[in-house]
Design goal:
Helices cover 81% and strands 0% of the residues. It is an all-alpha fold. The protein is elongated. The two termini are 25 Å apart.
Amino acid sequence: MDMYEQLFGPLSRSYCDYFLYLTIFNAIIFAFVILHGLYVLLFTKKRDSLAHVAFAGFQTFVSYFITRLLYSMCAGSLK
């Protein structure tokens, strides 16, 4: 039973911090994508890359939201 607990038992609350770090990382990446989108919109003549920036922004926002949600669930369940 000890091996079962080591392999499949719950981890400590300190492992929730990994979700926090991923959330911060995704928020920074999302900010860079938004700034890049504004740069493309305001200073370049090529508007076709704007769709790529919009898709990247949506994808990074979803990634940010998921890691934030997982961090909230992890921290809330181990209080």
